[in-house]
Amino acid sequence: MSRIASVLIPMPLPEAFDYAEPEGMGLAPGDQVAVPLGPRLIRGVVVEVRDALGGNRPLKPVAERLADPALPPGTVEFIQWAARYAVDAPGQPLAIALRGARAPKPRPMRVLVPTGVPPARPTAARTKVLEAAVAPMSAADLARAAGVSSGVVKGLLDEGALDVREIVAEARFDPPDLGRSGAELNASQAAAAEALKAVVGGFNVTLLDGVTGSGKTEVYLEAAAAALAADPDAQVLILLPEIALTQAVIARVAARFGAQPGEWHSDVAPPARRRVWEAVASGNCRIVVGARSALFLPFRRLKLIVVDEEHDGSFKQEEGFIYHARDLAVVRGRIEDAAVVLASATPSLESLRNAETGRYRWLRLSTRHGTARLPDIELIDLRETPPEAGRWLSPPLVREMAETWARGEQTLLFLNRRGYAPLVLCKACGERMTAPDTDSWLVEHRYTGRLVCHLTGFSMPKPSACPHCGAKDSLVSIGPGVERVEEEARALFPEARIAVFSSDTVFDAREARRLVEAMAAGEFDILVATQAAAKGHNFPKLTLVGVVDADLGLRGGDLRAAERTYQLLAQATGRAGRRDRPGKALLQTYAPEHAVMQALKAQDRDAFVEAEMAERELSGLPPFGRLAAVIASGPDAAQLEAFVQGMASQAPNTPGVEVYGPADAPLGLVRGRRRKRFLVRADRTVDLSAYMAAWRARVRPPGQIRVAIDIDPYSFL
Ligand code: ADP
To answer: From the alpha carbon of 252, which atom of ligand 1 is closest?
Structure first.
């Protein structure tokens, strides 16, 4: 009987398409195939093969089964589950999963191999070349290995004693050396490591909750060692929120296991990506360290997933396929029957709630390793000791920086704002410089002399006259970004070695690694950094952290503002005092009485969490209820308004679900498109994805209008 293959295509299409299986192709779920779609052939993945019952309309046949590795069943199931959860087309997560498969192959290398034809004149030099040529290598390498000139090699090639062959380096990764041992663990680390080792092997979730510097990484590397040792095919995935952090953990994994792990993030070059993808699919690569999209790699036998800094908002992907990698890591763990470890010094309220209710195992490490102590935290009340006009560092912070420098120790100035100034305005007419097609202020960047929209990437040279009123030299920079704080630090400490770490100054993984290593080696006295450098790193000589604007994250005040600010500042201040030298953190604030500042000062996370949980419980917000957002956008305001009004009337009426909106999004205009939002709150017992899917199915947006659904939103803009 003939058979039908359902093929999922990596595009935002609602479902898999059916194709006829050509006689004898022998397709199986997971196979990569080429199928006709309109006039083109396109890559897809078989999700199901079934017998064709008579009477079907004729289907186009699958064009080809590709030689590329098939997606393992767990990967296919995960993709489909993720799409259902996110209320999106399964082709969207599939596109992420195939990113490595579609990357260009590494270029073949031209090597020389002996043909067996004896050379006409077997000189000593020629014999040496033929002896060395037992290992295939390039002409230059061969000449070097044999210690002869390139002319000798060329002579043998011309005579036919050597021949050129093109080979593609096989996607190979050295196996981890499990004979090595890790750091000698202290008593609480050892207890945590034992508890983790006992649970690797099957699905379960553990919250590894330990203060900054307590050795969480050492502990989860022991769990990784146990998983790898228990099963010769086992694979381990370690997820991190920032590329800079992947670099640090890759180095630690390489040191622990004597083998380079697979590296996966947006900055990995396409051929290397392909190499990792294929090695993960073949089972050759047993440890992957990566950013959130590594979760979609085609693991054959995934036995442990670590989500390090699990509270971090960077695990949420906000564009295209909208998902939270921490939440999906738990799903993937369940599908693969793998253990999941969520590690953090400041866990998300969601994970803490799951730990409190016993759904997750809860391991705590409450002290720093060795003699290192947590830093003392002090608040600087900017109302009492403000900086001078046009400055951002207050006298108490400057004093502490001077003392730190005099002791030969390092300072980290933390300000989570890129560029020089967040706002440029005209002092003649008051005009604020905004992006032409987006509701956002243009940020001044002095290094490049440009005004930049951080949302869309739009940029323009800073004009010399106000574009609104034409006044010359009237544009003034308002507020500080890291570049401006660096300028002030240089003026205060002209002899200090100062660097800036933000995504503008550190564009790739190598640069991030270099800067982090230089800081750890004590090559800078002062580092001015955004969150890109304020997380996870160990800088032994760093003893002072100055938070320039501790209130920054509290403005705007969305659901998670307090939680996020607490987490970020606990992380940033946690960089101080890593070794034997005690550390100190100073927080500049206008609201020292705020619960977040008080909790940081008292280092009382539990009290903060308790108060925050109580508030969330009262209003039925996560983790006690569930949220989803709808963002509708379109170029025409009236058409969009009519559409969202219609959409509001279509919302299914379900007990335990409340729909708020439509309302203008705070970012009402992005890239020339107007935006409207709905917010949906549901009781925990409601299947919110199913509710949103049902609602979405009732509306037919006109061609120009896009509807994005965000389950568990982190951004409310
Ligand atoms: P965390 O992940 O909790 O912030 P890390 O695992 O990065 O902590 O440990 C912090 C620092 O202390 C690192 O430099 C690490 O190498 C060191 N460290 C932690 N535990 C030990 C140990 N048992 N022996 C030696 N060094 C340790």
So the answer is: 16
Q: What is the pLDDT of residue 337?
A: 97
Average pLDDT of the chain is 93
Q: How far is the CA of 190 from the centre of ligand 1 (A)?
A: 12
344 C-beta closer than 6 A to ligand 1: no
- Distance between Cα 344 and ligand 1 center (Å): 14
Q: What is the pLDDT of residue 324?
A: 97
Q: For residue 208, how far is its CA from the centre of ligand 1 (angstroms)?
A: 14
For the chain, what is the domain count?
Answer: 5
Ligand 1 geometric centre to CA of 217 (Å): 7
Q: What CA–CA distance (Å, rounded) separates 297 from 265? A: 11
CATH number of the CATH domain containing 55: 3.40.1440.60
Residue 705 resides in a domain: yes
Cα of 369 from ligand 1 centre, angstroms: 6
* Residue 447 or 65, more confident: 65
Residue 339 lies in a domain: yes
Whether residue 454 is contained in a domain is answered as no
Helix (H) or strand (E) segment spanning residue 406: helix 395-406
Whether residue 324 sits in one domain with residue 201: yes
CB-based contacts of 680: which residues, under 8 Å, 6+ apart?
627, 628, 629, 630, 657, 658, 659, 660, 688, 691, 692
Please tell me if the CB atom of residue 535 comes closer than 6 angstroms to any atom of ligand 1.
no
Mutate to test the pocket of ligand 1, among 369, 374, 575, 581 (most ligand atoms within 8 A of CB): 369
- Its pTM stands at 0.88
Mean per-residue pLDDT, 274-288: 95
Characterize 545-571 residue by residue with b for buried, 16 or more Cβ atoms within 10 angstroms of its Cβ, and e for exposed. Answer: bbbbbbbbbbeeeebbebbbbbbbbbb
Q: Over the stretch 667-715, which tens digit does the pLDDT of each residue have? A: 899 999 999 999 999 999 999 999 999 999 999 999 999 999 999 999 8
pLDDT at position 169 over 70: no
User: Residue 202 has what DSSP assignment?
Assistant: S
Q: CATH number of the domain at 675, please.
A: 3.30.70.600
249 in the same domain as 145: no
